[in-house]
Amino acid sequence: MTAPQEHLPVAIAGSGAARASRSLPDPYTPGHGSAEYEVSRYELYLDYRVSSNRLSGHAAITARSNVNLGTVTLNLAGLRVSKVQVDGQRAVRFSQRGNLLFITPARPLPAGTEFNLDIRYSGAPGPLRGNWGEVGWEELTDGVLVAGQPTGAPSWFPCNDHPSQKASFGFTITTEANYRVVCNGVLVSRHAKASRETWVFEQSEPMATYLATVQIGRYDLRPIALQHHSPSHRAEVRDDGGPRLVPQYVAAPPALMVPAAAALNRQEQMMETFQTCFGPYPFAGYTVVVADDDLEIPLEAQSLSVFGPNHLTQQWEDQRLIAHELAHQWFGNSLTVTTWADIWLQEGFACYAEWIWSEASGSATAAARARSAWRGLSVQPQDLVVGDPSPELMFDDRVYKRGALALHALRQAAGDELFFTVLRTWTHSYRYGGVTTADLVVTANGICAGLPGFNAGTILAPWLYQTALPPLP
Ligand SMILES: [Zn+2]
């Protein structure tokens, strides 16, 4: 199957509402997300008992209607809503059917109206089963992990669940006092009262619902990396507009702190390399959480990543994952797909970042990694369209590797200087926003306009929209 190349350079930009209506409904995640309204803010107050897996939640949501809105439809799964207010009014009908919450205000909300939802809910949260195994809220042996990609967010809060629908978040989480809570963004305050402790986090940069997370465990928190710099060097790095010094932390069980710090001992260099290649790190800080339970794969969330104790070696297979998850802060978290079909814009970039780090760290060059990935792909079935891989195969390794090869092809055509200018312009122009493949084509063609015959659409199309593997670039 071959998608015509004319699909590529379509119009970009437009209002959020226009983008939402183009992105939704998303055939990859039917039933998730609504184009009828946009959320600008989720304020989540959660009271949680680790011992009994009991969650009592209050979501205060600020939104705006895109249409004349008689009923507001949200995603919420496995939790029971007890009370709803719209703009402080109690005369509101609501019902739950399947994994949807329907809220009908006393009067319809005309298009363009700002409104507030207050939703009280509770239950025993658990992961949701889907095409991608279990996603969402998950109990650990002694704590909690939330892995929301792609449709796990409704397992713990009511939301407009689609990556095109980004909003700021506040988290106020109360749980047993002997646990540490890590959420997205910045820890604003914590206070203990008797045997309970409350943690407040602010995630001010817009965030997709699937990237929202809460991690609870018997974790210590330690800064990493900063000690490698003298204060004078720090000032120098900041003033010359070069890589910004980013506060980095590791949250881990005390017994895992030493192996965790050892595994992450080059992460600060990764951060510098990636800021040089991709532009400034987009968030206030970066925390690596190491859970006490082994994990199949590490997971990215906005401003943090989660690893298992089984990912903590100096071997390339682990080091590449540390680079991969860090790179998602630019590609996936700051710049987020507006439809899941474009998942290569996240996974292909994060995979290419592994190769960039490999070369920068003195291991195999990016070209060598590309060659070896190409050889691997050449003996696999060539029946996948990377630019629209189907919901079942959106996390197939071929999307990652071939997506990275598509970028390598772009680099070969543009040359290093223009290629990295494209990447930095890309992350700057679409910072905290939504992106499509067409946006990338327009950005690359703009930067490379002086190169005779250069056309990013023509370069990318065989990698993204044909099944047959193109020759190694
Ligand atoms: Zn990834």
TrEMBL record:
Query: Kind of enzyme, top EC level?
Result: hydrolase
Q: Where is each Peptidase M1 membrane alanine aminopeptidase domain found?
A: 263-442
Going by the UniProt record, its keywords in alphabetical order are: Aminopeptidase, Hydrolase, Metal-binding, Metalloprotease, Protease, Zinc
Q: Which InterPro entries match?
A: Aminopeptidase_N-like_N, Aminopeptidase_N-like_N_sf, Peptidase_M1, Peptidase_M1_aminopeptidases, Peptidase_M1_dom, Peptidase_M4/M1_CTD_sf
The catalysed reaction is: Release of an N-terminal amino acid, Xaa-|-Yaa- from a peptide, amide or arylamide. Xaa is preferably Ala, but may be most amino acids including Pro (slow action). When a terminal hydrophobic residue is followed by a prolyl residue, the two may be released as an intact Xaa-Pro dipeptide
Q: Does the keyword rRNA-binding apply?
A: no
Q: Name one Pfam family in it.
A: Peptidase_M1_N
Which coenzymes or cofactors are required?
Answer: Zn(2+)
Q: Name one GO molecular function term.
A: aminopeptidase activity
Domain called Aminopeptidase N-like N-terminal: residue spans: 41-211
Q: What is its EC number?
A: 3.4.11.2
**Assigned protein family:** Belongs to the peptidase M1 family.
| Protein name, per record | Aminopeptidase N
Q: Which organism is it from?
A: Arthrobacter liuii
